[in-house]
Design goal:
BTB domain-containing protein
């Protein structure tokens, strides 16, 4: 018989979690998410909520009730804390994602970053940053070579609407446009503070100086935008350039237009 499938795994590789489970309700429809308490302890928000539980009390916590997208984003968060991976959509195993698909994925990851920020989960924020960088360096089917895909206007707007001035995700948005954008990629739809930051960093770069907090693609690392505590060492490797020249040309850049 040749049409069998062996789904066995080694005993030490099996997925197993012990401990209590709580119910978290997310979004406008209060969708239920049963989650192990031990996994929620990574979040400062949930740690505080769990700490005041009486012995044997069942936690049914409603979060982000006014956000219609919260359930979808929280489902991503739950997948991340269980499996330490993030799912993405493709049309087929050999299908190159369209520019629209990449931008939709980038928006989903940005929403995850913002939710993780509200939950006080630095690890999830770091995972979102690394994933955002990964999605931006995939090829896309726009009829030309495009190693780098800029975050869309909407993604930049979302980042600036929900983060503070010193947020690492803002620095990442600026850096990505410094690395890959051409003049036609920026217009009046972008947040004023974003445009000012890009302009300042660009002027410093033009005269050979380095604007505080912004760096070159050749020397950049995911760790530059992570939320690590001072005593924690970032395990991410330095990003490697896809182009041998390290610079690229205008046809390598894909923006919002």
């Amino acid at each position: 018989m040749t049409d069998t499938e062996d789904i066995r795994i080694l005993e030490q590789d099996r997925f197993h979690i012990d401990g209590d489970i709580v119910i978290v309700k997310a979004g406008t429809r209060n969708q239920n998410f049963p989650i192990h308490v031990c996994l929620l302890n990574r979040s400062e928000f949930f740690r505080h909520k769990l700490a005041v539980l009486a012995a044997g009390e069942i936690l049914q916590l409603a979060i982000f009730e006014g956000d219609k997208d919260a359930a979808v984003t929280f489902a991503l968060y739950v997948h991340l804390i269980y499996y330490e991976t993030l799912p993405y959509k493709v049309a087929g195993p050999s299908t190159v994602p369209s520019l629209k698909q990449v931008h939709l994925e980038q928006m989903a990851i940005m929403k995850l970053y913002i939710m993780a920020q509200k939950l006080g989960d630095g690890g999830a924020m770091d995972a979102a940053v690394s994933t955002l960088l990964a999605t931006s360096q995939e090829p896309c089917s726009v009829g030309k070579r495009c190693n780098f895909t800029l975050p869309s206007t909407e993604v930049v707007q979302k980042a600036y609407a929900h983060t503070s001035t010193a947020s690492p995700i803002r620095r990442l948005m600026v850096d990505m446009y410094l690395w890959w954008a051409a003049a036609e990629h920026i217009d009046e739809r972008y947040p004023t503070q974003f445009v000012v930051s890009v302009a300042k960093a660009g002027l410093d770069s033009a005269r050979g100086a380095r604007h505080t907090g912004y760096g070159s693609f050749a020397q950049a690392s995911c760790c530059d935008y992570h939320q690590h505590e001072p005593h924690v060492v970032c395990s991410s490797r330095k990003m490697e350039e896809d182009l041998s020249s390290g610079e690229g040309t205008d046809e390598d850049y894909v923006g919002d237009g």
